[in-house]
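FORM 7B - TANDEM STRUCTURE REPORT

SECTION 1: FIRST PROTEIN
SEQUENCE AND TOKENS:
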Amino acid sequence: MRILLTNDDGVNAPGLKILEAIARKFSDDIWIIAPSEENSGAGHSLTLSRPVRIREHGPKHYSVTGTPTDSVMLGVGEIMKDAKPDLILSGVNRGANLGDDVTYSGTVSAAMEGTLAGVRSIALSQVYKKEGMGDDVPFAAASEWAERVLKPLIEMDFGERTLININFPALPPEDVKGVSVVRQGFHDYGRAAIVKGTDPRGYDYYWFGLHGIEQTPAHDTDLEAVGDGFVSVTPMQLDLTDHAALARLKDAYGD
């Protein structure tokens, strides 16, 4: 099995090294094609305003001067065009990709792009507590649990335009309670923190971030599962159509 690894934290991210170790438990044919710089929050963005360049770091090891989407597109359509991947693994992301945050996530978007290309794709993220910021994020839960979580998925037919989103809780591996297959949840809006500052020339600037707030996740969601100490596994479809609303809209237009 030929596996393509990518992420949104950049080609030198520690989570990508963790992912490579995980992937090698399933195959020796591992390709790494990831952004040259961090692209957290890039979503499913595609670089159109400047050229994108590829750099080879070694056999089957490349970086791309663009987004996670660029990396997968160039991986499948150029670098691996004569040896297309059987599976794409994106991650292991430094931080959660739960609930509506998946719409911002470059990690999940890389899996989306792989799914659009007809390749089975899985996104993996390691949740961490606030004190684990920076390069001190512990990936132990992902390292210990990923193989058993991925094993049932490796040969599974996900269905058309479906990807899998996995999140590992911020716990030591021995404290993880198991695996929970759940739906996508939604955060309480207003978690985004806008931090205002002033540069040395007197101009205002802004940082976007997230801050913890008290909330009650809906039952059987990824947010609840991870909060309860489980690894969350969520199948996600790329068809965003609200099929239940189609009839009402057709009636509204007299169709």
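SECTION 2: SECOND PROTEIN
SEQUENCE AND TOKENS:
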Amino acid sequence: MVTNRPGLALGALAADCGPILLADGKARVIAAAHAGWKGALTGILENTIASMELLGAERENITAVLGPSISQENYEVGPEFVERFVNHNPANRDWFRPSPKAGHALFDLNGYTVARLTAAGVHAVQIGRCTYKEEEHFYSYRRATHRGEKDYGRQISAIILEDI
């Protein structure tokens, strides 16, 4: 979602995926996006930035912040997942490291997301909070699944353009 309308809050719900808040303070354009692995791989970040540009934002003035999401140490994936990313771009191999489980890998969704944003020409940072590990602060779909719990949680990351 993208807007240049003051007073309108935009939000992204997430449970392990990356909530991304973006702002161009000069053009007064904001955005909120949800970037899981599939969206990050297939262009949600770049499409959000392009939508901001349609409202007058300029890439060099956009700051993007990746909110709480699952850390690499807690994001184990199978070989087919790694293959999908490497087939898309061989350089994507850099976002995986071996898992203790044979044939599996640990995926750095946060690093990958920030790198895609940076490659798109915006200033990007992450807050470095893990939804899986920080149970007292965040809901994690993966953690709930590992425990056999029901799926009843999400976080919202929100941004609003204030009136001046």
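SECTION 3: OBSERVATIONS ON SECOND PROTEIN
Helices lie at 37-42, 44-54, 79-88, 109-119, 141-147.
The longest helix spans residues 44-54.

SECTION 4: SIGNATURE
Preparer initials: ____
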